[in-house]
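Justification of computing resources. Each target in the renewal requires a structure prediction run like the one illustrated here; the chain below, 382 residues long, is used simply to show the kind of job we budget for.
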Amino acid sequence: MIARSRQVALALTALLAAGAACQAERHEPPGRPAPSATAAGGFTLVATGDVLPHSSIIDRARFDAGGRGYDFRPMLSDVKPLVSRADVALCHMETVYGADGDYTGYPAFKSPPEVATGLAATGYDGCSTASNHSLDDGAAGIARTLDALDRAGVRHAGTARTEAEARAVTVLPVGAARLAHLSYTYDTNGYPLPPGQPWAVNLIDEARIVADARAARRAGADVVVVSLHWGTEWQDEPDRQQLDLARSLTAARTGDRPDIDLILGTHAHVPQAYQKVNGTWVIYGMGDQVAGEMFNHGGSPDPRGNQSTIGRFTFAPPERKGARWKVTKAEFVPQLFDVDAGRVVNLNQALKEGADVAGVRDRIRDVVLSRGAAKDGLVMGE
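Resulting structure tokens:
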């Protein structure tokens, strides 16, 4: 375990064992309870960070499946209650999928397609897929990934199998609202876009993002959410590009209405700040939700690489047609991936059960609030 004692690992394992066993027996997610926001005409959105299955994660899923296939449901079981109770839940699928047992971790990832099944069972409705690893296995990797997500019933945005798919907007109906999900990445690790397929991966371009957001709005989207794979790895603070792009994107307006309603950041491997910019919430970096033991650029194990946050936002409908859906409540929930137990851990829940994780929880909280989000109403949720 990274920078945590074996005693804590055993405690967390014991806390999660019963829930994981129950989860392993369930093949379909249960129906979701109706949140109060839905009853009032609004909705809650939950978003989480990078799903990055290193070889150790793949091995754990094999073990959890009893040696037959791969089961990613147990490792996500601790956050299932929070994710499944949201009206819409978005993840970030950083890697592409392999096939027929050809699965690899870092540096060129090919993950088991059963990841998609695990995400669906946890309650995720959609995932951003544009990342620096989107072309680790070329166009074939993109196709396998999107095919698996489709089979699991998980929507996706950021990569495409066809030009028509690339031009289409991913729209998720959420109660009375229509939510558009857009996704872009800063780079593809130097892999060129597939020949004849310049549309295969959405790359960050300010003008294009604004144009896409406006097109989504014209097509009927009430809320536009943009996922950005950006930033400097291992840096707690957002870098200059993140700050500048967040400022310009949130300033884009059509009439008196912002073009973008929420920005979700991934890639840095560490939790970064939340901030309200030009009246719009920006998460600069949620951190890695699922990842093996992480090593920083100096080659040292870095526990921050297994820490992350869950963003939860409650949207209320506008008072008049065509106005903005407003965020009436903004929350974050600190979590970590326990590499010894092979489980995602909701830190606040673990603390209630007596696990010694207050130091980790408090470090994440301090980073999240480091740019003054508390004064704009951001609170730590359960």
